[in-house]
What does this fold into?
Amino acid sequence: MSQYVVAIDQGTTSTRCMVFDHDGRVVSAQAREHQQHFPAPGWVEHDPREIWANTRTVITEALAKADLSARDIAAVGVTNQRETAVVWDRFTGEPVHNAIVWQDTRTARLCTELGGETGPTRYQARTGLPLSTYFSGPKIRWILEEIDGARQRAEAGRLCFGTVDTWLLWNMTGGTHLTDVTNASRTLLMDLQTLSWDHSVAEEMGVPAAMLPRIRSSSEIYGRVTEPAALAGVPITGVLGDQQAATFGQACLSFGEAKNTYGTGNFLLLNTGTEPVRSHHGLLTTVCYQLGGQEPVYALEGSIAVTGSLVQWLRDNLGIISSAAEIEPLAATVADNGGVYFVPAFSGLLAPHWRSDARGAIVGLTRYVNRGHVARAVLEATAFQSREVLEAMNADSGTTVSALKVDGGMVGNEVLMQFQADILGVPVIRPVISETSALGAAYVAGLAVGFWSGTPEIRSHWAEHRRWEPTMPAQRREDLYAQWRKAVTRTLNWVDG
It folds into this structure.
């Protein structure tokens, strides 16, 4: 009897395979990092072949670790870095170029050209998204224009596009070209109301329709695994973009429930129900999930490009710490930030600013400042950016988030989590199971095959592990935030043109 569900969590820095039991508990997990390629300033790439090789490896290792075989697995779910674009040959399966990662800014000028007189909002009414280097549509256009012969091959029907979920599905099923509504909603090419490709937008963006995968719900049978052999024959029945998966894994299944994931970047999503809420405060309107033939559920999202990766930068580029774990005790050596604010606009600012002309800045430096103050400013940057997004979310939705569920690699940092609660003025809550993206992918896959009975059962599995209550005086909170907002203005208009 099949007793487990497998989730593949393909993220920005690593690929993870996790095996969950019926209670949503992890019984096995394996992960492997992949290389980050930076061929030019502002460019970020991954090798799709390395990602696929790592996926095969972690699946095989995770099953072997728990002494499991395909007979023990009821279903497979996939979750992934969302806006990263892969283009490959339909007949050979070979990528025509490295994957262009969601952090990449090479399409800035192209986005400006596409906006024309209307500007970044040209397609927002239809797609829910502003024109930005963040999304995958302009990345496809760049590949077709810059890689010799790519445009001709695409127009002849030889090339496939996909976000990373589609690339993995293609390889795992022997050539199935599909995506789900959540990933499609991050391309700048999908109509939010019809949940289908907007061919007029694709044409204006220069993307041939033949390249695009078919769009499915987040929870249905996509195909059966042909590779790796360890999972051969098991159905793939769930696909969600990583942040939507984390929202589902956090059981934010009702209007007004929100979660914040602290990873390479931060991603705050608010469930807005079955009608899309258009943002007037710099947020994205996106599909949260769709279960089979049910109505889609939408979300408002605030995407922050640099949070956890700022800690990595402090380690790798400046050498102030030798491991990410060292930042918390270093930050705890000082009582406050010493007047230092760090705005990590390394590749511009995403929500709620959407300023590709911004660049990173450390402000407020004096001779008093030491390593501890810089470390604290790095952590506080994550919390300040999250407050900016939450304020915009409250304004757009007409509701007030009264507590924030959190997950991701940084939520074990007590200094950060307490400051997050303090600067928001609301409780911050960490669940028992922190691998919420993988769990969400497992849930939607399991629901499709009856492994779980429905969303009430999913909700019953969620449990609180730790809660941080705000303790900072209100005036202190507002003074710090006012200084942060002043610091943000110092980063703008740095890049010309």
In short: The first strand starts at residue 4 and ends at 10. The chain has 16 helices and 23 strands. The radius of gyration is 22 Å.
